[in-house]
Write a structure and sequence with these properties.
single chain, 334 residues, globular
Length: 334
């Protein structure tokens, strides 16, 4: 998309500086009404912020006792109970927390789950093994049902994000599969919704039906996975993981039109632009961009070298001096 098209689709820029806690990495951002949750897998924590970026609660309960974990892999919001669920894989268990970060309860699960998403009364989890992975559906009776088994001949390459929810359905993508699946709330099954065409950068039908050669995929720099798939309004967002860099696609689900995402301008300056997007889960109105502290410093130093300054950038840098966290840019999608 051109700059003009980007400005037409993405509006009402709102910068949020995260304060009160140090993050290692942002792996998932979840809308929770008057607050949002950031899951930081590297930091082994989930942090609850208010909408202006102030830390309300830091959940980091390392240990082996009740409400504690040795390693936590993901989190999601249970809208039915208005609670936060953390998924631990050492040992395998689910932990529930209230909106203030207070531990409520836990239960063991037999599967090792690396990603989870909640919809109605069900919890859907991606099994930890990338080779032959399945989706496990967990119901209140504690029944665990494997669904949608994946092919067993796929190499165990880093696959990126696989599952997300906008609160109305759950979207799923799988390694070496260009079909995007959506949850049918009536049946509880994932159904094919779109097949994305990556052109010359994608794997051929022959490659997808034969045993895959990881080394050859790397050499050919092919897109081998569709990731960060999620719905915002009438649009489906999707990225392709490959050994090339791309900003992803925006698909109009009403018409099927596919647009490649362009650059987003920051601070009112054409010299300060970012590519890509992040999914803000549990809602379908906005998109979020993550602006790293390193990028902010590079822009600031570049302006100083020219004897220039940008008031908005200077303000953000000053507010972020303590936390040194990424800055979030929220935009409405129209």
């Amino acid at each position: 998309m051109t700059d003009e098209e980007m400005s037409q689709h993405f509006t009402n820029d709102r910068l949020v500086v995260l304060k009160g806690v140090m993050l290692n990495r942002i792996d998932r951002i979840i809308d929770w009404g008057d607050r949002f949750v950031i899951f930081d897998r590297r930091g082994q924590q989930a942090v609850i912020f208010d909408t202006t970026g102030n830390c309300l609660a830091q959940i980091k309960r390392l240990g082996k006792g009740p409400g504690e974990y040795v390693q936590v892999g993901d989190c999601t919001i249970d809208n039915a109970g208005n609670e936060l669920i953390l998924c631990a894989d050492q040992p395998g268990k689910l932990l529930w927390f209230d909106r203030d970060g207070k531990f409520l309860r836990e239960k063991r699960v037999s599967k090792c789950l690396m990603e989870i998403a909640c919809f109605d009364e069900y919890l859907y989890g991606i099994d930890c093994s990338l080779q032959g992975n399945t989706v496990t559906r967990i119901v209140p009776s504690e029944e665990e049902t494997p669904i949608l088994p994946h092919r067993s001949d796929c190499p165990a390459m880093l696959a990126g994000k696989l599952i997300s929810t906008n609160g109305r359905t759950v979207w799923l993508s799988r390694p070496f599969d260009y079909i995007v699946y959506a949850l049918n709330g009536g049946t509880g099954e994932f159904e094919p919704r779109y097949r994305l065409d990556w052109g010359d950068e994608g794997l051929s039908e022959t490659q997808l039906t034969e045993k895959l050669d990881e080394d050859q995929i790397r050499r050919d720099q092919k897109t081998y996975h569709v990731t960060d798939v999620g719905q915002v309004g009438p649009y489906l967002f999707a990225k392709g993981i490959s050994f090339k860099t791309g900003f992803g696609q925006m698909i109009d689900m009403r018409t099927g039109e596919v647009k490649s995402l362009g650059w987003t301008q920051l601070f009112g300056s054409p010299n300060c632009r970012i590519g890509g997007y992040g999914l803000l889960e549990n809602q379908d109105r906005r998109i979020v961009h993550e602006v790293s502290e390193n990028v902010l410093e590079i822009w600031s130093e570049g302006l100083k070298s020219k004897g220039e300054s940008n008031a908005v950038l200077d303000s953000v840098m000053a507010a972020n001096a303590e936390g040194m966290n990424p800055v979030l840019l929220f935009q409405d999608v129209i």
